[in-house]
Amino acid sequence: MNESFAESTLSPALRQAADGVGVPEDPWPEFTRRERRHRRIRLIRTVATAAVMAALVGIQTNVVRLPGWAPGIAVAAAPASLLDAPPRGALSGDEAWLNTLQARLSTDSSLGGWHPDGMWKVGDRDRIRLLYGSDQPGHRVALVAVPLRIGLLTKKALVWFVGPPGAGVEQMRYAGHSEGDDNPVMTLMQAGTGVNGFAVVVGPADSTVTISGDPHYTQRGTVEYQNIARPDGSGVGIAVLPTAPLRSEPVVRVSRGDHVLHQVGLGGGPYDAIDPTGPDMDALLTAVKRGTRGAPLDDANLRNFVETALSNSRLSATGTTVRVSWSGSVDGQAAALLTVQPADGGIIAYAMHGDDRTGWWMDLRLLLPSEGAYQRPIGWRIRADNPSRTPTDQVRVVAPPDAARVTVAVGSAPPITVTLDASNAGTASVPHNQPATLTAYSKNGNVLGSTPVPPLEADMSGLPGDSPATRVTP
User: Fold this and answer.
1) CA 329 – CA 320 distance, rounded (Å)
2) Of residues 252, 265, 233, 264, the one with CA closest to residue 132
């Protein structure tokens, strides 16, 4: 086959086959076009993100101010039972006064000396609400809910303002506040020597408020309170305080039926219940030293124990009898069981131990009926000597002076005799979650007295006798 014949025969077929093969265009131009588009999109996103971040920083630092009505993120709980309740007190109907208060707080958050903490600013003026306001003897009192904001973060401040009777908003002065607390009770007390003071308590609208004066420990072994509060609408109590120093701080109790919502002592003194250097205290300590059983306490420990008992029971050294029923040591520290009795009242037993180096511990406080109190055996549960004060199964037992023996009955188990030392004290084993009863017997086998071993107290905020754990009378 010659060359010309092959070329003439194959060329058309090769050209036809070549035409059927698709050859792609150069991909580089399309790649560069897509990359330019992606860069523009990334640049737009970066600029937008930076703008949003700058705006958020500006908002969060209050450089860029949001309108007060704009939604925010609440960072602290608020007492809904106070915020959702209708305004209470005579001022709640004074629209002109309320409008002025809203305007002043929204433009001048330092009203009366109050300043929001840090960078917080007052929010929407329409959300500034009067929770309580009225004229009391010698004072105008207002409790105000003020919305606060840092950018997107919000919270509520409950602020007390006080002024003279009939005061305009500009005359009101800051008297205290609470933020980020869901406690449903707000309290205010102002008292001083030579001036008429007052105490105001605002609780939930369906609650009952009492403000106690001096407690009365009855001879039958209960504690009673003189209620010095008068109601000022639902859930509000007001007390007028004397010009003389109070003997002890008033105690607020806010309850709903039988359920106690809040109980606390009011600060704001001055008080003159205990004078550690006064003649009454010195005379009391001299009498206490007589008749002490066991290893005697040194003067410093004795004074500390007695002062602690009087302060806790809110009793004065004047007219109060204190006895040391037993003294010794616990975990190498001074310890004592003493009793405190006001004139014509019940008897409170206190067990304490400690020293200046490690601190002081109250192990027991138990209100007893006055009849037969000194014939009762007393026992208290012992905690471990560690930072968490872990409950143990040990009970310290102190027998009355005339007891020949003491038994302990745990639950329904048969009584077991407690081994007593020369000071008529001993230790019994009682599971910390089990009830037990101590019984003292005389030499001829007669029962002198019986006393339940109380459970460990989880909360010592009230007075002895307030809770079943601190009294033997039902």
Assistant:
1) 26
2) 233
Residue 190's DSSP bridge partners are 198
Q: What digits encode the pLDDT tens for the residues 65-78?
A: 555 555 556 555 67
Tell me the Cα Rg of the chain.
38
Report d(CA 157, CA 179) in Å as an integer.
5
Count of C-beta atoms within a 10 Å radius of residue 19 = 8
Instruction: Round to whole Å and give the CA distance between 223 and 408.
Output: 28
- The alpha helices in 275-419, defined as continuous H runs, are 279-289, 299-313
pTM to 2 decimal places: 0.64
Sequence-distant (≥ 6) Cβ neighbours of residue 427 within 8 angstroms:
382, 394, 395, 396, 397, 418, 419
In tens, the pLDDT along 201-243 reads 999 999 999 998 878 999 999 999 888 899 998 999 999 888 7
Burial class (CB in 10 A: 0-12, 13-18, 19+), 94: middle
Q: Provide CB contacts within 8 A for 373, sequence distance 6+.
A: 339, 346, 347, 349
Whether 153 and 75 have beta carbons less than 8 Å apart is answered as yes
CB-based contact 128:105 (threshold 8 Å) = yes
| Cα 164 → chain centroid | 31
Omega before residue 184 within 30° of 0, cis: no
Q: How far apart are CA 260 and CA 264, in angstroms?
A: 11
Residue 56 pLDDT greater than 50, yes or no: no
DSSP code of 29? H
- Distant-in-sequence, close-in-space partners of 340: CB < 8 Å, separation ≥ 6: 309, 310, 313, 315, 320, 321, 322, 347, 348, 350
Mean pLDDT calculated for residue range 311-324: 90
Expressed in angstroms, the distance from the first to the final Cα of the chain is 132
- Assign 60 a pLDDT band (cuts: 50, 70, 90): very low
Q: What is the rounded CA–CA span in Å between residue 377 and residue 360?
A: 24
What gap in Å lies between CA 465 and CA 471, rounded to an integer? 5
Distance, in Å, from the CA atom of 358 to the CA atom of 386, rounded to the nearest integer, reads 11
**37 CB-contact burial (10 Å; exposed 0-12 / middle 13-18 / buried 19+):** exposed
- To 10 degrees, what angle do helices 299-313 and 279-289 make? 110
Residues 6+ apart with CB under 8 A from 173: 112, 113, 161, 162, 163
**Average per-residue pLDDT in the chain?**
83
Length of the chain: 474
> Residue 443 burial (CB < 10 Å; 0-12/13-18/19+)?
exposed
